[in-house]
Amino acid sequence: MGLTDLTITQAHQGLVKKEFSALELCKAYLDKIKERDREIFAFLTVVENLALSQAKEVDDLISAGEKIPILAGIPSAIKDVILIEGIRCTAGSKILENYVAPYDATVIKKLKGEKAVFLGKTNLDEFAMGASTEHSAFGPTRNPRDLTRVPGGSSGGSAAAVAAQECIYALGSDTGGSIRQPASFCGVVGLKPTYGAVSRYGLIAFASSLDQIGPITKNVEDCKIVFDAIKGKDEMDSTSIDLNSKFQNPNYKQIPNSKFQIRNLRLGVPKEYFVKGLDPGIEKLVKAAIKKYEEMGAKIEEVSLPHTEYALPAYYIINPSEASANLARYDGIKFGYSVAKPQTNTDTLLDVYLKSRGQGFGQEVRRRIMLGTYSLSAGYYEAYYLKAQKVRTLVKNDFEKVFKEVDAILGPVSPILPFKIGEKVGDPLSMYLVDVYTVAINLVGVPALSLPCGKVGQLPVGLQIIGKPFEEDIILEIGEKFEQTCQK
């Protein structure tokens, strides 16, 4: 087994036993990036000097006999929408092409506290708007499992980097499936935490009531380790909560690993998730995974989420509306790409704004800004945005009702397999439909895990495990039990 094959736990044990150094581990991943990333393009920025200096710091601690945290010296990749002080952060957009982060995101501060090693920043759909990582201003990322296909999006660079063994783990962000869908397409594990479980401070905002940072890893155990490191209350993010506080989190309960039993669980399968449009190969594998849980002793119950069909249209009104407000700050004056000065004698300040934004934003971002601005405009607010928020409440009520009957929900991550690069770029509606099983989770704010459950040919398929608010530990345990069963 090579150094780039290791999981977090294996790499940590190797470092502690001095089987290899943190520098050797770091260099192995930097070499892998140099070897493979030309064809995959998972990274927008590689910070070799920073990574090597962080690795050396961990080696010095080990040499001094210090006890190191489990993430110390572990090479990671960060989606280029999360700020690392002093490092370029583009959000996959020309408008931020030369923007250098002035401070660390809270999750980065937490990882620095754990002595993590940052290899670089990963590619994404511009401002995290997309399901394929083809909407990056710097070019598409390719799926390591099949270079002719997309890795999913918007955290496609992070998922591809983990799948190609260019890092041990990565951070992504999930607004409507942007961690889970690329994890499914690339055959790795991805967790979208409960809204508020992880601080969003230092995450470039897309849709503030939907965005959430989460880990992408090689297995479920690693996912648990990274989530434990980044979760928790942050005074810089008023929506964040302390997961271990019964006052802030009424659902809080610790389940010792030894006492967790699948046979004690009721798992729901929504009938609305297995309808026309779901790829037969995906349906077969997901149903086989559900069957395995039944064989492990879980009680499988068919449930109904009747407003599922309305979640996608509601999401694609709320999402662009919040985006249009958040992206208003990129005016070409304060920071970011700018035409710099009026180009003609008749140009006004407004012309500078319009030309800077028109040239700095890509097509998909401009489309969503226009959709959102229209939905929020006078005369249309009640017809679109307000109605979408009422639908959101109905979708939330569906989940609350089902969670009174079951402990978690099982289903597919995506209705289709990874598609060819260029196949859907010209058809936005077709691209949006890829999110049909993931957007409701963001509207409701509950946690969900994507983990591999098999392949159709060489193409990975993900199983989605949806949990109650702040019950990440439960869905991670459910996922780990499936993983262990498949390895036997």
Provide structural commentary.
- Belongs to the amidase family. GatA subfamily.
- It catalyses: L-glutamyl-tRNA(Gln) + L-glutamine + ATP + H2O = L-glutaminyl-tRNA(Gln) + L-glutamate + ADP + phosphate + H(+).
- GO terms for molecular function: ATP binding; glutaminyl-tRNA synthase (glutamine-hydrolyzing) activity; transferase activity.
- This is Glutamyl-tRNA(Gln) amidotransferase subunit A.
- Heterotrimer of A, B and C subunits.
- The protein has 488 residues and is of the alpha/beta class.
- It has one domain (1-316, 409-488): Amidase signature (AS) domain (Amidase signature (AS) enzymes), CATH 3.90.1300.
- Helices cover 38% and strands 13% of the residues.
- The chain is built from 15 helices and 11 strands.
- It has an 11-stranded mixed sheet with strand order 1-3-2-4-6-5-10-11-9-7-8, with helices on both faces.
- Strand 7, helix 8 (280-295) and strand 8 (299-303) form a beta-alpha-beta unit.
- The chain is globular and about 70 Å long.
- The relative contact order is 0.13.
- The model has no long low-confidence stretch (mean pLDDT 94).
